[in-house]
Batch of 2 targets.
Target 1
Amino acid sequence: MSEKLSKEELDVLTSLLKRVTPLPKMEWPILRTIWENRLMPMNPIELFILDRPVLSADEGNLRILLSWRGKDDPYYPNCWHHPGGYLGADERIEAAIQRAAQREIGVPVKNISPVTMANWPKIARDHQWSLLVTCQPDGEPILKKGKLEYFPFNKQPSELLPYHVLMHEKVKSWIQFVRCLQGQDPDLCQMFLNSISPVLESDLKK
């Protein structure tokens, strides 16, 4: 265990931290230190970007958009992953989703539905407490072979990042549940989707 900081060190560190740029524009050396030393859980939003609404087609016809991490990625080289990004300080969830979508696929997204949370305390880079959402592009994504591609939802590429494989299976189970509910009671299914779409957030200050 690291030696505890002295009072003088704490005072200096506290003073310096007040000058750090908050997420999503935090200075890279500081963010990397927080990651690698697991000083606090990070809060990424993982986007399961489907080519059509969940209930509009048979699951076997769904496609999902994946992004490639190249050989120079220091943590997860040479693998596919679901696009996403961290929730920034003072940022609304949908704003973070749209920011990540614009950066990763070049267009905003629509029909956003929260699915579940995922806790990854031991993955290579950091401790992540992730929000998983499904959505569709609101426009034509800027596709690029080997960089950003659609894949059949039920046929993941073998190079999919391992913990994203687990998230994919969770989303798949959620879609199967929603489709089953739709088959039994369409009105109840729509009520369910409407109830989970808004994420509780507020500008309360106390």
Target 2
Amino acid sequence: MKIFKYLFLLLIIIIIGGSLYIATIDDKFDFKATVITSIPQEVAFTEINNLENWKKWNPLQTEDPTIQFSLPEKTIGKNANISWDSEKFGEGNITTLETLPYTSITQEITYKAVASNPTQKMYWIFEEKKEKNAIKISWGIKGKLSFLEKIYLIINNENHPEKQLKPHLEKGLANLINKIEKEMQAYDIHIDGVTKHGGGFYMYN
């Protein structure tokens, strides 16, 4: 009987030690994909700020042709929303929380199929580069790992959100740039600047 007692105590020690180790693992994550492009900053921001456009370059679309997107009446700016239903990726939605014209967009992404911590922050940053007519677009995600997710991470490091999601961000940026460049070539768009009138922002040639 003593051996069972010792085995039980050993199991308790392993569980406590394992829990303490898992608790020391950093639960925060913040990663992003970036691209340098000559696309005008205003054009890139406007394309991304309108969630209706996401159906044409979103990486989920190219990886699962069966995906269905749903859009409410508001698709631009704060409180705009887009949701999807996919056989491969499940259900989810993105809501725009805040926009700073031509500089940044802050959003919230929710994966309905994920039981723990299904909501994460998503962000876009638009920066001018010293190179003439060049900007850097950054698309990132940040959030926190649940205790269960940290256990999965110990079992398989490939479960980390950065390894699972960053390739989608990189592919989405490539799709985005390709779409805008094709449209600019087709319509021969040239933008010299932006001016502000009483009704909002206008682009002028």
